[in-house]
Structure formats: structure tokens, C-alpha cells
């Protein structure tokens, strides 16, 4: 394999869920920059419009388009995948990335109890929403990806998990950790099942990245400092910094990688 073929994703048909912002947008950008045809699926109509027009304006060789949906809407998700196949003929790479925060943790960044975020006070609806989007949404995304990729002989499924799948956090809402832990297990199981169909399934497990999650919480000083203190590099990451790993997992370079958890956290989880 030459360096050029190793990272070649030109012409690939790619879906990115939650690609209108943050980490998902970075996935979409690197794929379009490398010549792929990318469909961003996101629930944020305004964010989609801005993201698609800004990516298109870059003049990169790939293509970008969008579809508005909530990944917890199973029928809409299946229809969106069918539409990509109708438009592009196939689906080669799927980033199952859409996710939400789970509200405050049981402790504030300064170590105080958060009355409304204790296990016996947090809203049940918050638990349901986080599981619906962050776990069931990923399951349904993998399911649709597998269905289509089996028919074309293979593909790549890349799931955004989190270091919170393995490291417990007192300042992150309780539902977030079990949802991401479920995602990690689901990825390993899907990798075992789908290898025979030529489908590689892997996880990217970020530590703290500055995005719009939790209303841009990591842009606030107290929250940012709590996460910065955990990082061996003393800082949190920019979405830009996930692009290399995303390209690696989407391209021939990672042909023998499946069922892996790729941690990208500045060493934060070594302290956890
Ligand atoms: N930012 C971090 O520090 C961090 C760390 C670890 C893991 N993650 C994970 O990264 C992924 C992306 O998060 P981000 O930090 O880029 O956040 P973000 O809020 O900047 O972007 C998330 C995008 O997903 C979309 N989205 C949310 N729920 C959706 C739904 N139900 N259906 C369709 N689209 C939906 C949002 O509209 C948004 O465009 C999430 O799975 C998150 O859990 C983030």
C-alpha cells in the first residue's frame, strides 16, 4: 500500500450523524476534504444549513449534503439511509456520532452537591432521552449501516463513545456513563458479528473536546478548568484534533482494525 492509497477515501459514500457541530462536523470536514461524498444527518436544521454551506465553501474535492432527523426516530433514520443508497448507490462509511449530554453530575466542578442531579432526584425523562439517543440511537445507526453494507460486501462503522464509558465522572450526568459503556460493548459485539461481512466496527473514545455539547459547557471557565486539570497536556482538545483518527479508521490504513477502542484524551483517563 502506498501512502496515497492508505488514506484514500475519495468517492466513498459516508454518513455522519450529529455532524452539524463539534466532533461530527470535524469527521464530515476531513471526509469531504479527502474527496468523499458525505451526508450529514442531524436534528439541528440551522446548524445543518450553516455547516453544509461552510464546508461546501471550502472548495474541497468531496461533496456534502444533509438530512434533518432525530436519531431516536427509527423510521426517519431508516428512510435517511435508504435515501443515501438511492442517491449514492451505496454506503461505505458510517460515523455513529450524534449524542447529548446528561445534564449536571451529582457534584459541581467545585465539589458541591447538585440537588437536582442526585440519583434519586434527577429527572427520569433525562435518563430516557440519553439512553434513547446515545445508546439506542447508536444501535439503530449500526443496524441500518450493517443492513446496507452487507449488500455491498463491507464497510466501516465508527462510533463516538467516550472515556466516560470506562472512567466514572462525578461532574457528568449519571446517565451518560452507562449509555457510553453500553456503546463500547455494542461496538465489540457488532465487530465480532460483522467481521464475516467485511465490516469493521470501531470506537473513537474522546476525552474533553471543546464543542457545543451541554450548551458549550466546556467553554465555561470552571468546567473547563476541571477537565483541563485531568489532562496530562493541561488543556482540552479542539475538534480539529480528531480528524487524523477519523481518517485512519475510515481508510484502508486501518484494514486490520476492528472492535477497537481508540482513546483520544490527552492522557486524561490515566488519572481517572
Ligand atoms: N465534546 C466532548 O468533550 C466529548 C467527549 C466524549 C464524547 N463526546 C461525544 O461526541 C459526540 C459528539 O458530541 P460533540 O461534543 O461534538 O457535541 P455537539 O453538541 O457539539 O454536537 C453534537 C451534534 O449532534 C446533534 N444531535 C444531538 N442529538 C441528536 C439526535 N437525537 N439526533 C440527531 N442529531 C443529534 C446535535 O444537533 C449536534 O449537532 C457525542 O456522542 C458525545 O457524547 C464528546
Helix content: 40-55%
Which descriptor suits the 3D outline? globular
- Please name the CATH topology: Rossmann fold
Note the run of SSEs as H and E.
HEHEHEHEHEHEHHHEH
Please state the average pLDDT score. 97
What is the strand tally?
7
Using the coordinates above, name the CATH class: Alpha Beta
Low-confidence stretches: none
Question: Can you tell me the CATH architecture?
Answer: 3-Layer(aba) Sandwich
What is the overall number of helices?
A: 10
Bound molecules: nicotinamide-adenine-dinucleotide
CATH superfamily: NAD(P)-binding Rossmann-like Domain
Biggest sheet layout: 7 strands, parallel
Which percent band covers the strand fraction?
Answer: 5-15%
Please, how many domains?
1
Counting helices, strands and paired strands, the structural category is: alpha/beta
Family: Belongs to the short-chain dehydrogenases/reductases (SDR) family.
Protein name: Short-chain dehydrogenase
GO molecular function: oxidoreductase activity, acting on the CH-OH group of donors, NAD or NADP as acceptor
Pfam families: adh_short_C2
Description of the structure:
GO terms for molecular function: oxidoreductase activity, acting on the CH-OH group of donors, NAD or NADP as acceptor. This is Short-chain dehydrogenase. InterPro entries: NAD(P)-bd_dom_sf, SDR_fam. Keywords: Oxidoreductase. Belongs to the short-chain dehydrogenases/reductases (SDR) family. This protein has 272 residues and is α/β, with parallel strands linked by helices. It has one domain: NAD(P)-binding Rossmann-like Domain (Rossmann fold, 3-Layer(aba) Sandwich). It is built from ten helices and seven strands. The chain has helices at 3-6, 22-33, 45-56, 74-88, 124-152, 176-194, 213-216, 221-230, 243-250, 268-271; strands spanning 13-17, 37-42, 63-68, 93-96, 155-160, 199-206, 261-264. Strands 3-2-1-4-5-6-7 form a seven-stranded parallel beta sheet, sandwiched between helices. α3 (45-56) links the parallel β2 (37-42) and β3 (63-68). The protein is globular, with a radius of gyration of 18 Å. The chain starts with a helix and ends with a helix. It binds nicotinamide-adenine-dinucleotide (NAD).
Amino acid at each position: 500500500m502506498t501512502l496515497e492509497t492508505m488514506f484514500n477515501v475519495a468517492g466513498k459514500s459516508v454518513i455522519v450523524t450529529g455532524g452539524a457541530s463539534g466532533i461530527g462536523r470535524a469527521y464530515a470536514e476531513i471526509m469531504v476534504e479527502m474527496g468523499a461524498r458525505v451526508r450529514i444527518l442531524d436534528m439541528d436544521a440551522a446548524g445543518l444549513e450553516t455547516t453544509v454551506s461552510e464546508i461546501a465553501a471550502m472548495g474541497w474535492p468531496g461533496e456534502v449534503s444533509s438530512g434533518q432527523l432525530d436519531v431516536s426516530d427509527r423510521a426517519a433514520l431508516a428512510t435517511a439511509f435508504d435515501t443515501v443508497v438511492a442517491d449514492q448507490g451505496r454506503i461505505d462509511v458510517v460515523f455513529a456520532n450524534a449524542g447529548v449530554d446528561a445534564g449536571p453530575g451529582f457534584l459541581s466542578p467545585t465539589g458541591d452537591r447538585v440537588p437536582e442531579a442526585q440519583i434519586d432526584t434527577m429527572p427520569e425523562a433525562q435518563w430516557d432521552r440519553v439512553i434513547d439517543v446515545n445508546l439506542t440511537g447508536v444501535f439503530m445507526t449500526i443496524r441500518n449501516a450493517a443492513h446496507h453494507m452487507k449488500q455491498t460486501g463491507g464497510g466501516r462503522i465508527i462510533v463516538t463513545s467516550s472515556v466516560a464509558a470506562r472512567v466514572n465522572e462525578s461532574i457528568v450526568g449519571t446517565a451518560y456513563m452507562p449509555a457510553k459503556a453500553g456503546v463500547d460493548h455494542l461496538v465489540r459485539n457488532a465487530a465480532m458479528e460483522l467481521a464475516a461481512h467485511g465490516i469493521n466496527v470501531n470506537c473513537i473514545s474522546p476525552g474533553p473536546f471543546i464543542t457545543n455539547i451541554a450548551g458549550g459547557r466546556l467553554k465555561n471557565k470552571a468546567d473547563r478548568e476541571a477537565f483541563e486539570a485531568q489532562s496530562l497536556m493541561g488543556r482540552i482538545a479542539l475538534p480539529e484534533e480528531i480528524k487524523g483518527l477519523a481518517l485512519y479508521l475510515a481508510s484502508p490504513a486501518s484494514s486490520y482494525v476492528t472492535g477497537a477502542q481508540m482513546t483520544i484524551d490527552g492522557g486524561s483517563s490515566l488519572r481517572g
